[in-house]
Design brief:
Blueprint lengths: L2 H18 L3 E4 L11 E5 L2 E9 L4 E3 L5 H12 L6 E6 L3 E6 H9 L4 E3 H7 L1 E2 H4 L1
Parallel strand pairs: 3-5
Antiparallel strand pairs: 1-2, 2-3, 4-7, 5-6, 6-8
Amino acid sequence: MSNKKDGSGFEKAFAELLSAYGFWVHLLQDSPNGQPFDLIAVKDGEAYVFDCKNCISERFALSRIEENQKTAMALWWECGNKEPLFAIHFPFRGIRILSYSDAMELIDTGKGSVSGADIDELTSSLEEWL
């Protein structure tokens, strides 16, 4: 299976999982120019945006966060919405939630990737986030 196909599969599975927890979820269509995030989830009047990342190892390369995503997520948050989130699927850690601000802080400090104990310290499990 290709990386694109794996990623799209994770996006759909994550959307279905959030839906099972009572969220209204909308997957954004792929665009040739990129997209700011993968899905919007709403529950109890609160809207959340997620970009989904599927990892094949226990390391997440921060370079996978594209410039258009950084810009769109910053604007989303500046407009008074909930902080944007990254849903990252790791083979042995499951789905971890990384906040936009933590991701940007890592990038700003020159960190290229996160793995192992850093992942657990910087992220929440999906269950904790819910």
